[in-house]
């Protein structure tokens, strides 16, 4: 099982540690151009500050494995629009040693509870890059539906990548 806690400076070292072996492509696949390698505390300070200054609320969370109380990942809930009752999931990350153990699906279930039950929102959306088929499969398994593809929407390492919009409604 997992639970979420607000992302705070005490989580920075775990976050930095997860990315010590990361490549530029690894970082781009989950965070776009948000971070430069190596990830530093000053980058994380700026990331948290930027989230706090957004017009539509953004919440940053650390994912905790409940049995061990270990920090195993990070997720961002962005564009929290109370008027339209919708939000976006971004920067979804599970550390490498915790992958392929079911935490991704547990995280999606936790996010559905938070967005639909706790906040009372109706719509949850996310984008996934075309080269991240494993994530796309996970989101489909969690109930997200494909809404459309922005062709050649991102340029990385000399290649264009499609960006897929997926969503889940409280009524799905």
Summarize the structure in words:
This protein has a single domain, classed as 3-Layer(aba) Sandwich (Aminopeptidase). By secondary structure, the protein is an alpha+beta fold. Helix content is 30%, strand content 37%. A hairpin with a 2-residue loop joins strand 6 and strand 7. It is globular and about 40 Å long. It has helices at residues 12-18, 24-31, 41-52, 103-118, 133-141; strands at 2-6, 59-65, 70-81, 86-94, 123-129, 145-156, 159-169. Strands 1-2-3-4-5-7-6 form a seven-stranded mixed sheet, with helices on both faces.
Instruction: Give the proportion of residues in helices.
Output: 25-40%
So what's the overall shape?
A: globular
Strand order of the largest sheet: 1-2-3-4-5-7-6
Q: Give the CATH topology.
A: Aminopeptidase
Beta-strand residue percentage: 35-45%
Question: Quick one: how many beta strands?
Answer: 7
CATH domain class name: Alpha Beta
Structurally, how many domains make up the residues? 1
Low-confidence stretches: none
CATH level-four homologous superfamily name:
Gcn5-related N-acetyltransferase (GNAT)
Radius of gyration over alpha carbons?
Answer: 16 Å
Number of helices: 5
Derived from helix and strand composition plus strand pairing, the structural class reads alpha+beta
If you average the pLDDT, what whole number results?
A: 96
Largest sheet, in brief, is: 7 strands, mixed
